[in-house]
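Handout, page 2. Input:
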Amino acid sequence: MSEQEKNPMHFFKRLSEKSRALRQEAAEAGLGAFDSPSADKPKRPRRRRSEKPQSDESAAEAVGTEKPRASKKPRRKPQGERAESERSAASGKTAEKAEQKEKRAPRRNPRKKAPAGQLAELLKRAKLPKAHNIHLDPKAKVKIIPLGGLEQIGMNITAFECNDTIIVVDCGIAFPSEDMLGIDCVIPDISYLKENRSKVKGFVITHGHEDHIGALPYILKELNVPVYSTKLTIALIRHKLEEHRLLDSAKLFVVKHGDTVPFGDFNVEFIKTNHSISDSSALAIFSPAGVIFHTGDFKIDYTPVFGEAADLQRMAELGKRGVLAMLCDSTNAIRPGFTMSEKTVGRTFDLIFAEHRKNRIIVATFASNVDRVQQVINSAYKYGRKVVVEGRSMVNVIGIANELGYIKIPEGTLIEIDQLKNYPPEKTVLITTGSQGESMAALSRMASGMHRKVAISPNDVVIMSSHPIPGNEKAVDKVINELSIKGADVIFQDTHVSGHACAEEIKLMYSLLRPKFALPVHGEYRHRKAQVEIAEAVGVPKENILFMSTGDVVTLTSESCKITGHVQAGGILVDGLGVGDVGNVVLRDRQNLAQNGIMIVTIGLQRGSNQLLAGPEIVSRGFVYVKDSEDLMAEARERAVTAVTDSLDAGVNDWSKLKNVVRDELSDFFWKKMKRTPVILPIILGVN
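Output:
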């Protein structure tokens, strides 16, 4: 069945045409009673305006056109003649005009109705229990425990505890710093949550960025509790859990903005906000001590690309009733003014596409920035270009967003990367990952010439549609330089707007909510320090602003907010399938190996007599190139032989002591000779 035939209005138009055709047949056959109801022919029940239209099959059955009901006195022509008449009537001018009008009429608000795909069916709204009344208690105490998200960008996770109830807001990862060699990501230490697992009622997730959901596959293995969030966020979480083979045991619940989820001594309301990913939420946490407002990551965007603007009215209502404390995003607190609307980037894209009609365009952005991808697709469609989405995470996120209706891709616009060769370069656009200079991301591989299917040419225009995350500046500069060396034109001015609130938007949030206590979160020290100054400027008393650190236990009552303790917190390193098996000692060894290289000294001794039978043989990796340093290696071998024979002659039979002698001798030699200290690893082989 075509999309036109699925439309209920199209069905009813066909039905009207068939009805007129039947009346005409009845008149020609002399069946004047056809138009009047009879006892043998039941009346068609009239549909009230409030009722939903019936499906094609059920409506046809009720009216009697496709599946005619049996009657005592048949008044219609035989089926074959009637079908012929219907086909004749359908080919008339009236039906033809109706069909042409149907084809011309565009669908209204296509995004409001998500495709009825498999994923959309799986992500049905949760049947939430009714929220219970939270009675205020002047003596009630709520503990707020940030287990991550402070002193850094990323790894956001905060626990809220009251009596025997703990809820956890977000559960993200942090990306490794330059000195964390070989580490894939850093996840939060949840020792405190595991010690109190009977109290933990669930995770509440504000949005679908990695620094808010990335640690869930690791944490749910140890603490399998329900996870609540909005549709797109749950879809992204679901995909991550599926990759880790945890989907069958996970308990995921989809909520909508405006829903309130009860958790023991807490009620949590999801409130619409704007960010660089759709379906972002702020949280109003109702507790016996009062309302705690958690902004999540947010910005104030009055003209978002998808969906509605933030629910400022609800925030103002909460502020009027009274907010006890607010945990506010500090990422852009050091920037004055307002964050620009996401739609301004779309206008910039249009200008770039218009100016570079004869160039292939490559756009690098965050995989999760669905609105940004939508605007690239809009510009590509406007200028007649085909779009390729490249990068594993980009393909996954856009595929999920497309199936759920969060992005609209015109038919025929999207092509596979293997089809690029079938189109002129100036008629294509690549949307790719790698805007942060990640070494294995698609753009980095293109820039270094390692990508198998895309080669950068001097006719390419590369749009860097993101700002470097603090710490990634060098990696981004490296990619830009490599692209420039290959002749590509790199554009990064006015091609990105942040998803985080600047100073004036943070002031607006304080003005709407009017919290009694302010607790800056989400950012490095300088970011949170800037928000302290903003809170003071809008009237929050200095003594009511609390500067927290990771692991602090903040005790909140209706009259006070202070740090009363500390729990174990920090980061756990993930290296491949190993979680927590790499610590500071291993990292120091890796740094030493990376900086100085390694020398492996192999010695063969006869068992029992300890007579030197072979070696010492020296192998160097990362220290010197052996073929260019033969004299140095020969001298080092002589020093090692002397050290071994002298020790054996002195009666040293302990192999561990013998290893230390060789290590000390060669370390001293290389330092005096080259001022270097390689890692020296002696190996003694016992020969029978």
